[in-house]
Each structure stands twice: as structure tokens, then as C-alpha cells.
Amino acid sequence: MRPDAVMLFAAGFGTRMGALTATRPKPLIEVAGRPLIDHALALVDEAGIGRCVVNTHYLADQIHAHLRGRGDVLISHESPRILDTGGGLLQALPRLDGDAVFTLNSDAVWTGNNPLTQLTRAWEPEKMDALLLLVPPGNARGHTGTGDFVMSADGRLCRGPGAIYTGAQILKTATLADPPADAFSLNVIWDRLLQDGRLYGAVHAGGWCDVGHPGGIAMAEAMLAGTDDV
Question: Domain 5-225 is classified in which CATH homologous superfamily?
């Protein structure tokens, strides 16, 4: 059975955005006339996912105000400190419910197939504890580095230069049963799953842009308009 809840990460400081996030949280930065968080919520709506939780920390009041009209979106506010991806997801679990959940970053823009729908189609819970959506370097914009994972023919992942993690995944909530701390990265959980051979990947059919720095805004807009040459 597919998950029916999604965790949308929106708590970060957005420091790479420089002056753009001095008075505004990164999820409210506009790309093609629309805040980043609305791009992400449109994917959630299109995929028909019943429950959405957004975590907040930096300039949280602005995000809360922006989402006030969305009665279907729940807030998990992190205070006094930010909890990172793993700690943030762990705190939000009572609001998410379910044996497995989607997670999605709020600072990326996509073209092509809906990433959450793609994950649903590829999800095989009998052999997977997590399924990460990846993108080949040639389909990625706004991202630097050599990649995050190498995927075998059967979809099993190992660390190494290759495909780039997009910030979209399905994760079984039981993997968070023994957290290392209250604030921790989901990389800690993935490393455990790698040892057990339970971390899998799927490849996104379309384009993806990491809007993590000011230049990413123009890249994302060009990708959405179909005018980029990447």
C-alpha cells in the first residue's frame, strides 16, 4: 500500500541565498511568479496525498501566515533549535501517521513526471526500507558536486559519485525507532539501510533544479520555460 502522508522540509536558514533570505524564508522565494513552497505543494496536490506536514524554524511566522488558508496542511514547528532532516521528521511523525511517508524538499523545482507519483509506482515495501528519487547529472540544474549514489541494476544504492539525490523519497517510519539524537540528518538512517541492503533508488523522468543559491532562480525559470540548454 502506498504512503498517504508527506513531510515537506521548510525549516532551513537558506544561508546560500545571501541577502534574499535576510528577511524572508527560502520557501517563500518566488520562481516563475510562485513561492517555492507552492511549487512543492502543487506536486503534493497533484499526487493526491491526503496528509501534508510542513516543518518550520527560520522566520516561521511568515510561512505560517502563507499557509493559513491551507487547512489540509499541518505545521511542525522546531524550537528552540532546528532539528535537521532526521530530527525534523521524527518530531513530525505523530502528525504524519502511517508505516511509511514521503519526504520532499521545498527548495527544488521539477519538470516531467510528478516525483511523488514516480516513487509510488516504484515502491516495493517488502524489500525496501527507503526509496530515494535520483536524477542523472545531465538532468540536474543548480547543483554542484560529483553526485551522491550509484545504483545497481536492481535499484539498490551505494554511496559514490553518480546520480544526485533530489530531496524526494519514501521512508518507512520504523527506521527512526532508534534515533541517534534529537537533531540529526537522514544520512544517518540511510547509512544504516545501506549496510542492510534496504536502500533503493529510482530515476526521475524529467528535469530538476536545486534552487539553493540566487543563480538557481534563473536556472529554474529557464527550465520551466523550456529555454535552457542543459
Answer: Spore Coat Polysaccharide Biosynthesis Protein SpsA; Chain A (3.90.550.10)
